[in-house]
Design a protein that fits this description.
Length: 415
Amino acid sequence: MEVDGDLMRAVVAEEDRQHSQIELLAPKNYASRATREAFASIVSFTTIEGYPGRRFHAGMVNLDAIERLAIDRAKQLFGCSYANVQPHSGTQANQAVFYALLESGDNVLSMSLRDGGHLSHGLRSNFSGKWFNVANYGVDKNSGLIDYDAVREIARKHRPKLMVVGGSSYPRRIDFERFKQIADECGSYLLADISHFSGLVAGGVHESPFPHAHVVTSTTNKNLRGPRGGIILCDDEGLGKKLDSALFPGIQGGPLPEYISAKAVAFKEALSVEFKEYAQAVLRNARTFCSVLSSAGYDIVTGGTDTPLVMVDLRSVGLTGDVAAESLEAAGIPCNKNLVPGDPEGPRTTSGLRFGLSAVTTRGFRDEATRDIAEIVVDVLDGVRKAGAGDAQVEKSAKDRVELLARRYPIYLRA
């Protein structure tokens, strides 16, 4: 019996879109069937508050078991002694850390949004920038890499109570040990937000922030291939108690048990040998994608990548990110416009593009297929350069090639 035909048509249209396109959005990925079944299970009808063994509702014995599974697997996955699996998102995980460690008006040091940071790390229009006194560090204007000496100089001047590393568009490895040295000099806590490469950390192809960071946060839906949500990790029992209280009842009410269930499944999958192979393939694909675009004359921010992210600076070819992203979407390749270091444009226009290779790797893309999609991206961008806007004929040709690739590497959503 059909209950809501309008909604069904929208969902089916979205399913068709995802199957026919190749998405290169950095946060994008696909959860396994088992993970999807977990967050569509009967536990979604349960309301819970508090933590395992310390709930405020009756009938929690099975929910306690589920959450303990997720906690234990997260700790094993990242090699730490504490995990909170309740945050609804990475941003709320960061909010809980700020709430646990800081008082309103305390000093914070984080990477600027224009250089690769994240809005929840101190953007003025975000709570983190309104409640705290935030200073920013950036990257070297020539290399695009973090200038650690400059970071130390800013930290000594600002004396932050919390330093934040990680972000949404910095593609290179972070020297966590060096950041910890700077934090120690200033008596600061160190928070590592590894949302865009936590799957690579779990898979052993990116350095772990432990034992250097005091607290680690991440989303669970990017290259961890879980449901949308967040986690908080640390290796200090006393600090863990503060983080628990900061999340609940501090900034968040009851968690979503269906998503905790799905996180448990995703963490188990991430502990497998197959996931380690996946993480290696993500990094290999990202570097292959970089190589193709670079060879075609497009500037890669920092000259490469150590993560699933590929950042392209379009200034040397006279393009803006908004026009380029619009044409790529018309060709069936969603990505996003993005600020790049030294960007003269605003966030609605930008001079760059941000690509992520996590989702296509899940679909089965490896070297040849990654080169194929990168070459299609180049053709579309070349078309924009020649026409000054999206070239409809180029976009149509590219879309046909994308649909062929999509059929060769289907999403496993359909039975």
